[in-house]
C-alpha cells in the first residue's frame, strides 16, 4: 500500500478520511494535531505552552513538531504493518523539507501527498458546526443536516457525549485559514515538482471523497 501525507485547510475532512483508511486498510494514523492535543491534556508545562499557540490558531514550532513525529515513527517502524497516513504535517516549506529528510533517512520513498481542496466559506461552516466524539473519533456537524447525530449532542456509534474542539471558533478559524494560505499552500508546488501530489475535491461528501482516495491506495511511488 502507498503511504499518504494529507495537506488541507481546516475541516476539509483529513481526520474522517484517515479514519476510513485505518478501518478499511489498516493504516496507522499519525495526526500531529492529535499528538499536540494529547500533550495539552497532560497539562505539563509544554502542554500549557502548546495550548496557548493552538488556541489562537498559530503554528507550533517546527523542531518540536519534528521531534513528536520522529518519536511516532520510531515506534511505528517496530510494527509489522507500518503503512501510515500523516495528517497535519507538513504545514510549512521547512516542515516539508524536514519530512523529506526524515523519510529519506528511513528509506521510505513510497508515499503520495493528498491535497484536499476546500473554499473558505465551506471550511468555515464545517468548523463552526463540527462536533467530535471523544471516544470513537467520529465527526458530526450540527449545521449540516446529513451530518447531524441522530440524537442531539450524542454519538450514533457509542452514545458518548459529543465535544467541540476549543479552537473551532470563528476568530481562530480565520487565523488558521490565513496561516494555511500563507504557510501551507506554497508547499503544493514543491510536491508537484517532485511528482508526489494528488488533488482531491473535498467539497464532495465524505463517502465520495473516500472513493476518490481509494483509487490510489494500491499505487506505488
Ligand atoms: P489540526 O488538528 O491538524 O487541525 O491541528 C490543530 C492545531 O495544532 C493547528 O491549528 C496548529 O496550531 C497545531 N498543529 C498541528 N499540526 C501542526 C504542524 N505540523 N505544525 C505546527 N502546528 C501544528
CATH-assigned fold name = Rossmann fold
Please, how many helices?
9
Number of domains: 1
Compressed to H and E, one letter per element, the order equals EHEHHHEHEHEEHHEH
Question: What would your notes on this structure say?
Answer:
With 221 residues, the protein is α/β, with parallel strands linked by helices. It has a single domain, classed as P-loop containing nucleotide triphosphate hydrolases (Rossmann fold, 3-Layer(aba) Sandwich). Helices cover 46% and strands 14% of the residues. It has nine helices and seven strands, in the order βαβαααβαβαββααβα. The protein has helices at residues 14-25, 32-42, 45-54, 62-76, 93-105, 120-129, 170-184, 187-193, 206-214, and strands at residues 3-7, 28-31, 84-87, 111-117, 130-132, 139-141, 197-201. The strands form two sheets. A five-stranded parallel β-sheet has the order 2-3-1-4-7, with helices on both faces. Residues 10, 32-33, 36, 53-54, 57-60, 65, 88-89, 91, 95, 167, 176 line the site of adenosine monophosphate.
Amino acid at each position: 500500500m502507498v503511504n499518504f501525507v494529507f495537506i488541507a485547510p481546516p475541516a476539509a475532512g483529513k481526520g474522517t478520511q484517515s479514519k476510513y483508511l485505518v478501518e478499511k486498510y489498516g493504516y496507522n494514523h499519525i495526526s500531529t494535531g492529535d499528538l499536540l492535543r494529547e500533550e495539552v491534556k497532560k497539562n505539563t508545562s509544554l502542554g500549557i505552552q502548546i495550548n496557548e499557540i493552538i488556541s489562537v490558531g498559530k503554528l507550533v514550532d517546527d523542531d518540536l513538531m519534528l521531534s513528536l513525529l520522529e518519536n511516532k515513527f520510531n515506534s511505528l517502524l517496530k510494527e509489522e504493518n507500518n503503512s501510515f497516513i500523516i495528517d497535519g504535517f507538513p504545514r510549512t516549506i521547512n516542515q516539508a523539507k524536514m519530512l523529506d529528510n526524515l523519510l529519506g533517512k528511513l528509506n521510505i520513498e513510497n508515499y503520495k501527498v493528498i491535497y484536499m481542496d476546500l473554499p473558505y466559506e465551506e471550511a468555515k461552516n464545517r468548523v463552526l458546526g463540527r462536533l467530535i466524539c471523544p471516544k470513537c473519533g467520529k465527526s458530526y456537524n450540527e449545521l449540516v443536516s446529513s451530518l447531524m447525530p441522530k440524537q442531539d449532542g450524542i454519538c450514533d456509534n457509542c452514545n458518548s457525549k459529543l465535544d467541540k474542539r476549543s479552537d473551532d471558533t470563528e476568530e481562530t478559524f480565520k487565523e488558521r485559514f490565513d496561516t494555511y494560505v500563507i504557510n501551507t499552500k506554497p508547499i503544493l508546488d514543491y510536491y508537484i515538482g517532485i511528482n508526489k501530489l494528488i488533488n482531491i475535491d473535498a467539497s464532495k461528501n465524505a463517502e465520495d471523497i473516500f472513493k476518490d482516495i481509494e483509487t490510489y491506495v494500491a499505487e506505488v511511488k
